Request: fold
Amino acid sequence: MVEKIIKGFTINFMKKQRLYYSLNEFLKEKFGEKVKKIPLDAGLSCPNRDGTKGYGGCIYCDPKGSGTGLFKEGKSLEEQVKLFLEIFKKKKFKKFIAYFQSFCNTYAPLEKLKEIYDIVYLDPSIVGLAIGTRPDCIDENIAKLLKSYQEKGYYLWIELGLQSMHNQTLKLINRGHTFEDFLQGYNLLKKYDIPVVVHIIFGLPGETKEMMLETVKTLAKLKIDGIKFHALYIVKGSKMAELYLKGKYNPLEMEFYANLVAEALTYLPPTTVIHRLCSEARKEDILAPLWVSRKMEVINLIRKIMSKKELYQGKNYTE
Ligand code: SF4
Reply:
């Protein structure tokens, strides 16, 4: 029997191997039961869209934002929370995390941010707060405000969009920040001991497999708390759509993406929580690749590849 101990995790090749450390598993360990995220749309904007950093946003940006779009439909945050709590409680969930997903959720005056995040007090079943934003939208005062929720006992994490560590790629996709900007925001959050989940995208224009894996290996060195993997997809009406329609961009194949994620996971520390293995989009909203609308198929393929090749998270990780 081959056994290997990695940071307290027993890896037993003769028994069922844990392929990666999923968010569900992490939350179950932390709260003793399943915890559901409530997707919230606070109606905030983004400095890369309103002219502060740039206009039009990243070339792949969905002008509708990546969330529910409920704010534009006139639903207040309180109404959104109540709506989802009703739905999820019927599905027997008892604990929830308020998840601010659309656009940049630290991009507003401090008082406004406090008012928004205070939604956690609406219902005692809300046990945590998750906030998606850009790395250049964090400053000392925001970090202190975020910390205050952690100090009140809420489980808190911040999701920072990096997408790639390569500045030439960040420039090409009109990201409006550099890798150094990311490090600044990241380090500020870590100074306050706030968990950070990093978003990366595979398949960005001009990136080779080696470049994509270099991003993962660099994040592994930082021992990031969590990661979300995305495959680049072409949203109708985005700048990427123009490139794609002119034949200047070829989306990744599903097999390639799945193999890449399977390999990427081996470079990450076993303690990094995997929040997402693949992005998901509705077929009717995108031009390509259409396989991103079949998320479970992609996840199953990643798992199958990992089992077949005997890969697991942390296998190639070195401190
Ligand atoms: S940072 Fe996010 S919201 Fe802002 S333009 Fe880029 S993808 Fe869109």
